[in-house]
Amino acid sequence: MLYCIHHQGWVTSSPCMVELGKLILKHHPSLSITILTITAPFDTGATGSYNSAVSAAVPSINFRHLPTTPLPQDPSSYPSFETITFELITSDNPNVHQALRAISSTSAVVALVIDFFCTPALAVAEQLNIPAYYFFTSSGTGLTLLFYFPILHRNNTRSLKDIYELIKFWNQ
What does pTM read for this prediction? Predict the structure, then answer.
């Protein structure tokens, strides 16, 4: 089970998830891959032709579109598109939960692989006792930086936004 942001106009991780799915199938051809996708309550561009092309080329990969979750407020009232996206992801947890339960009633869900933006789904995986993994499609340096943030937080009494000195990420 793969879960990612998937729509046109966003730095979408869906093509990366599709490639991950193909790689998994190469090593484990008996598996099938389901990619959960968020259905936004506004136009995000057409993705149907992409999904159809992927499923036609690799029949073991299919897409499951989660039901539309209404936003608590008008989209124009949010400060940015990113804020709307994170609100949608968080609000979609009940749909993710329902989809995982439904799929697991007929098939074995081996794991949930999420992209970095779908972190709220970790709670759903934990509730259902499904192992969850991140698929991080950035550089090793970016990942190292993210891992280092808790150390910075633990070793500083000030907020990171209030630190104006050069922060060293390695010892020389």
Answer: 0.77
